[in-house]
Write a structure and sequence with these properties.
Helix content is about 10%, strand content about 25%. By secondary structure, it is α+β, with helices and mostly antiparallel strands. Strand 3 and strand 4 form a beta hairpin.
Length: about 60
């Protein structure tokens, strides 16, 4: 589990904005990139991030 103190100082390496903890990922509040947490260590590398899902368009 990531401590609140660590989460408070982390920022998205791309946008430089705040992040939030969501399940087992750290999510950027601006661009939506999802950074993994491996062995309780956040992997804050842009190349390791998952891109946000596109909203599905209805016909």
């Amino acid at each position: 589990m990531i401590s609140k103190e660590l989460l408070d100082i982390l920022a998205c390496p791309l946008c430089k904005t705040d992040v939030r903890l969501e399940d087992d990922r750290i999510v950027c509040t601006k661009c939506g990139r999802r950074y993994p947490i491996k062995d309780e260590i956040p992997v804050m590398l842009i190349d390791e991030a998952e891109l946000p899902e596109e909203p599905k368009k209805e016909n």
